[in-house]
Amino acid sequence: MRAPVLTLLFLLFAFVTNAQSIYVRLITNKGNITLVLYDKTPNHRDMFLQTIKKGLYNNAQFNRVIKSFVSQGGELDETILERGKQHPELPLQRLAAEITPTLFHKKGAIGAGRNDNPEKSSYLTQIYLVVGKQQTDEQLDALEKKKGIKFSSSQRAAYKSIGGTPHLDNDYTVFGEIVEGMDVADAINSVKTDKNDLPIEPVTFKPVILSKKEVSKFKK
Description:
The two termini are 28 Å apart. This protein is an alpha+beta fold. Helix content is 33%, strand content 22%. The model is unreliable at 1-11 (pLDDT under 50). The protein is globular.
C-alpha cells in the first residue's frame, strides 16, 4: 500500500506547487527553507508578504519550539498581548480567519498563530511550521467525531504517511507549505529548549520573497 500512498502525495504536491505563484525563502542559521504561499488564502498570503517588505521579520526567532508538534516564529503571544495592555486605545490588530478544509496541517504546512479568540482570527506577526506525528485511522476517526469534521482520502494518506497536527484543523489558518528544506525544519524542531520551549541557542530567520526566475524551478 505504501507505493500508491507516496504516488498520491507526489501528485498532490505537484498540483499545489504548479498552481501557486508566490514563494518565500526563510534564511535561517540552520539552513534555508522554501515555502509556497497558497492563493486560496489571499489575505494571509498578502499579509505575510507585507510584513516581509516592512522588515518586521528581519532577525526574527523561532521562539517556541515543541518537538514533534510545531516550530513557532515571530512575536510571542505574551509580547503581542502586553503591547495591547500598554496601548488600550489601540485595538489589537488581527486578520480574519481563512480556514479552508482542503488546506490542512500536514507536516510542512505553515500556519498563522493566534490567541483563543472566538473568531479564530490570526496574529499579524506570528507563524508556525508544522512537524507533528504520523496518525492512525483510529486517531483520525476520533478527531472527526470530536471536531465534527471529515478528513478526505488524500488528507488521511498524508497524515498516516508523513504526519502532521490534524487536531489544529478547522481552528487555525494554514496558508502555505514547505517545498524545499524540510530537513532544516526538522533540525529546528529538534533543538534543545528550556522550560518555556525557547531554544537554548537562538534560531533566527529572515524571509525573502523569491523572484520569478527563482520560482520557475519549482514549476518544472
